[in-house]
């Protein structure tokens, strides 16, 4: 079960262990003893959400099947605020599984992009034709060896699907309407150095980033696009070596393992499924069947059968319910938080540096896009104190907006949005803001102080910098 570091660095399949952070409404009593309204939930729809955790409902949210335009809170600020910079972190869109269930036929899903197949987006054909003229100079090596859009009639393992492309075309279009049309973030004659683009070396992340940009930019000019390559899923660049982070991770994995052992229904379910496909239970579990089952589920393809029977919805529900319980315990035990604070520091540090430069009036990198994985977004959410946020669904987006107060031009504020929901005042660096300050927005300094110092205080150590926190003795 122990995932080696390679897995953490290279794949996004470890999500089984980190799945579905669940937001539970918390009824709080205010000072007068009057029960205030439930805290605003992160993402779920209050009308349709069932009162108790429903594994099927959770799985549907995870699929993020494109439908009508969603509500979103990006770009909302008092009118005397001016939008200065936007940093976007995305998870790639819907993809084919990374694993096969042993001895079964893999789901037949077509990864070519076809206009008369659902889900469809009006920009889909133009996207394909533009991508096929792609320019090799737009990518840092080794990205230039990757295909620019999915194209296999039977998807390859981990390949982005048409659903995944449409999800990000939609994200891009939504952000364009808000940031470009409404707030004029980029001038009409924008140039290369106003964008900062970075992706891991997987085709699904590069293609997701391209689809989002294609929906976002009014003129997708290949000469102005430059994607950097990021070898680490934590986007930690030159600062990946952090022994204490790995120790937190090992303890977290131990916790997961023990929780799983306690769940006899889960063990029974794996046993039944192993019988159906006729392999030892251990082998089935190692094949991470839920990854494949979710693909069947999201694409409405029935679960596989053998002559011994069929894998079914009952199995799926048991595994999915366990994931939700695992998330709950993960939040309580805080080992993952320790991992996240160290794991997310480098990318948050880089983001804060960029926001500070923008606040100083520099015009470079005013729009940044990181095309990433669940194992990227999940630690960032956790580190920011958004432990109630759900596990990153396909095409999840986490956004940092920087605003300038026109009435006090030296003052800058940040807003944090997750899947279109304003979560600024759920973050650990701004959750007390309303109590202490009359200002309607969260000051940039709060985020800076958190990333440069308070993150390490939150680890409960005496370290005040990344290097010391990573090399603490006797942890
Ligand atoms: C899923 O598939 C079943 C049968 O294959 C079909 O009846 C149903 O309408 C499909 N649901 C959706 C949402 O496409
Ligand atoms: C954080 O940013 C500073 C620049 O402000 C840089 O000198 C430092 O190396 C960065 N640290 C990490 C761990 O990324």
From TrEMBL:
Key word Transmembrane present: yes
Cell location = Golgi apparatus membrane
Catalysed reactions, semicolon-separated: 3-O-[beta-D-GlcA-(1->3)-beta-D-Gal-(1->3)-beta-D-Gal-(1->4)-beta-D-2-O-P-Xyl]-L-seryl-[protein] + H2O = 3-O-(beta-D-GlcA-(1->3)-beta-D-Gal-(1->3)-beta-D-Gal-(1->4)-beta-D-Xyl)-L-seryl-[protein] + phosphate
Residues of the signal sequence? Answer: 1-23
Which one Pfam family would you cite for this protein?
Answer: His_Phos_2
- What does the record say about its membrane topology? Single-pass type II membrane protein
Question: Would you kindly state one Gene Ontology biological process term found in this protein's UniProt entry?
Answer: glycosaminoglycan biosynthetic process
Which molecular-function annotations from GO does this UniProt entry contain?
phosphatase activity
Write down the superkingdom of origin.
Answer: Eukaryota
Q: Does the keyword Coiled coil apply?
A: no
Q: Where does it sit, as one GO cellular component term?
A: Golgi membrane
Q: Which UniProt keywords are given for this protein, alphabetically ordered? A: Glycoprotein, Golgi apparatus, Hydrolase, Membrane, Signal, Signal-anchor, Transmembrane, Transmembrane helix
Protein role: Responsible for the 2-O-dephosphorylation of xylose in the glycosaminoglycan-protein linkage region of proteoglycans thereby regulating the amount of mature glycosaminoglycan (GAG) chains. Sulfated glycosaminoglycans (GAGs), including heparan sulfate and chondroitin sulfate, are synthesized on the so-called common GAG-protein linkage region (GlcUAbeta1-3Galbeta1-3Galbeta1-4Xylbeta1-O-Ser) of core proteins, which is formed by the stepwise addition of monosaccharide residues by the respective specific glycosyltransferases.
Q: PANTHER family given for it? A: 2-PHOSPHOXYLOSE PHOSPHATASE 1, ACID PHOSPHATASE-RELATED
Q: How does it assemble?
A: Interacts with B3GAT3; the interaction increases the 2-phosphoxylose phosphatase activity of PXYLP1 during completion of linkage region formation in a B3GAT3-mediated manner.
Q: Which family does it belong to?
A: Belongs to the histidine acid phosphatase family.
The protein's name is 2-phosphoxylose phosphatase 1
Its source organism is: Prolemur simus (Greater bamboo lemur)
- What are the top taxonomic ranks of the organism? Eukaryota, Metazoa, Chordata, Craniata, Vertebrata
């Amino acid at each position: 079960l122990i995932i080696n570091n390679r897995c953490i660095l290279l794949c996004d399949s470890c999500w089984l262990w980190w799945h579905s952070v669940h937001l539970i409404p918390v009824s709080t009593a205010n000072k007068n003893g009057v029960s205030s309204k439930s805290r605003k939930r992160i993402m779920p729809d209050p009308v349709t959400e069932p009162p108790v955790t429903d594994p099927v409902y959770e799985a549907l949210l995870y699929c993020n099947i494109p439908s009508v335009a969603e509500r979103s809170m990006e770009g909302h600020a008092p009118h005397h605020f001016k939008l200065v910079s936007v940093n976007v972190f995305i998870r790639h869109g819907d993809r084919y599984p990374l694993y096969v269930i042993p001895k079964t036929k893999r789901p037949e899903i077509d990864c070519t992009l076809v206009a008369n197949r659902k889900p469809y987006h009006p920009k889909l054909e133009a996207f394909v034709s533009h991508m096929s003229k792609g320019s090799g100079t737009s990518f840092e090596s080794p990205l230039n060896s990757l295909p620019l859009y999915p194209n296999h009639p039977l998807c390859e393992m981990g390949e982005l699907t048409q659903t995944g492309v449409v999800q990000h075309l939609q994200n891009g279009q939504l952000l364009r309407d808000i940031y470009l049309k409404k707030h004029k973030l980029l001038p009409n004659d924008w140039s290369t150095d106003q964008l900062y683009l970075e992706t891991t070396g997987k085709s699904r992340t590069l293609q997701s980033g391209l689809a989002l940009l294609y929906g976002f930019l009014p003129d997708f000019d290949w000469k102005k696009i430059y994607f950097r390559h990021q070898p680490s899923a934590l986007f930690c660049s030159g600062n990946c070596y952090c022994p204490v982070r790995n120790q937190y991770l090992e303890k977290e994995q131990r916790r997961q393992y023990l929780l799983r052992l306690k769940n006899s229904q889960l063990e029974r379910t794996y046993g039944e499924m192993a019988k159906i496909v006729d392999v030892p239970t251990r082998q089935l579990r190692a094949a991470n069947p839920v990854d494949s089952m979710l693909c069947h589920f999201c694409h409405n393809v029935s679960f596989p059968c053998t002559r011994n029977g069929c894998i079914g919805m009952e199995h799926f529900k048991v595994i999915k319910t366990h994931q939700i319980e695992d998330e709950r315990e993960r939040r309580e035990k805080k080992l993952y938080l320790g991992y996240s604070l160290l794991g997310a520091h480098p990318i948050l540090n880089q983001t804060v540096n960029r926001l500070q430069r923008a606040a100083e009036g520099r015009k470079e990198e005013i729009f940044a896009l990181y095309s990433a994985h669940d194992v990227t977004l999940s630690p960032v959410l956790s580190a920011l104190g958004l432990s109630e946020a759900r596990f990153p669904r396909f095409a999840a987006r986490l956004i940092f907006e920087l605003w300038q107060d026109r009435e006090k031009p030296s003052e800058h504020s940040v807003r944090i949005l997750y899947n279109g929901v304003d979560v600024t005042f759920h973050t650990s660096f701004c959750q007390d803001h309303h109590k202490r300050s009359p200002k309607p927005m969260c000051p940039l300094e709060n985020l800076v102080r958190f990333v440069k110092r308070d993150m390490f205080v939150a680890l409960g150590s005496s370290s005040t910098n990344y290097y010391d926190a990573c090399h603490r003795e006797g942890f």
